[in-house]
Fold this sequence. Notes:
The chain has helices at residues 5-8, 10-17, 19-44, 53-71, 77-96, 102-105. It has 107 residues and is an all-alpha fold. The chain has one domain. Helix 3 runs antiparallel to helix 4 and helix 4 (53-71) packs antiparallel against helix 5. The longest helix is centred in the N-terminal third of the chain and has 26 residues, at 19-44.
Amino acid sequence: MGKKANEEFQWLTDVLAGGILRWVFVALWILAGLGFVAAGLAVLGVLVPVELWRTLSIVSAVLSIAVAILFLGGGMNQPLFNALAMDVIILVALLLLNWPPESLIGA
C-alpha cells in the first residue's frame, strides 16, 4: 500500500516540531495573526493608517498560508485547513474581486 498523503511530509513536520525551528514558525504564525489584527485596526482607523489595511491583510494571508503549508501533516490538520480556506478567501476577495471597494472603507 502507498503512503497516506500526510505521511509524505511527516519528515518536514518532525523537523519543524522540534528545536529552534519550532519557535521560528510559532513566531511567524503570531506575526501573521498580528498582521490581521493591525489590518482590522486600520479599517477602524485606530493606531494604524487606514491606507494600510489592504496591504496588511494580503501580507498576513500570504504569511499564514506559508506557515500552514509547512505544518500540514502534523496531526492537527483541520485547524490548518480552516486557516488555509480563510486565507484563500481573503486573497480572492482582495486581489481578484477587489472587494470591498475602496469607497466603502476609504482606502
